[in-house]
Amino acid sequence: MNALALALLAIEARVRDAVVEQIEKASRAYGGYLAAVLASGGITDGNALNSRADLHQALLMLLNAAQRNVSDQIRAAYTAAVQIARNALVDELSDLGHETGTDLGNLGSTLTALLLDVENSFGRARIEIQNGIAQAFDGVAGDNDQVTTVRQLAVNAALTRAATRLRMRSVATVSTSVHQASRDAQTAMLRNYATIHGYATVSKRWRVTSDNPCGMCKALHGTVVGVTDEFNRNANSGTGKLRPVYLDLQGPPRHPNCRCQIELVVS
Ligand SMILES: [Zn+2]
Questions:
Q1: Taking the complete model, does pTM exceed 0.70, yes or no?
Q2: Residues lining ligand 1 (ion), CB within 5 A?
Q3: 236 and 219 in contact (C-beta within 8 Å)?
Q4: Which of 51, 121, 136, 141 could disulfide-link to 158, CB 3.0 to 4.6 Å?
Q5: Distance 224 CA to ligand 1 centre (A)
Q6: What is the per-residue pLDDT across 118-172, written as a single tens digit (0 to 9) for each?
């Protein structure tokens, strides 16, 4: 693995940890509110639990705060990865004897799409948490002390499940942000390069770094296209199904957790 790939993985790991911590913090805090409300009694069913204004407010407040923080983290990760990828490409072109500007120009709409992913993930989480805890509450019948304890556990487990799904979706967005950033920086730089130097001298080649790539990446491996062209969206050598492309296929990642890279080829 080269220096760029390692640097991207380091950003990804750091931001992933920060994002996970935010979500777990919010989940723990909401679990505390839930426990207090359940312990105080008087809740008749799951719907009544969700209708508690104080609980509802707490959930919105905690999710909104976490969402803002996760969005900031994604934005920072994207920006950092763009800078690193740009610098790596400037060096790579320079090593090939091609000086190029460092101006990134238009990076496209990836960051907007990523922030929308975050918004959607948190919106879904809110619904999953509310539905999950209502179902968990209603799934335990009766109203003695023992039932209250069992219900408490069931509600907590439902909250944890919803938080886990949010965490998984957010971690996937972190991964996408870092690797799409690298691709966007390369795309923008190569577009500038092609404008300045003309098209034919440098092209880009898809390269897998994983020992066990998926069928799509395996099929893309070694294929060469012009620096401003897309790779083949339909390439697939495996039996796995062809996944949709996120935005475009100017370069990796082909899918979440794709570790492929492009390398420049001088013709
Ligand atoms: Zn790949």
A1: yes
A2: 217, 254, 258, 260
A3: yes
A4: 136
A5: 15
A6: 999 999 999 999 999 999 999 998 777 788 889 999 999 999 999 999 999 999 9
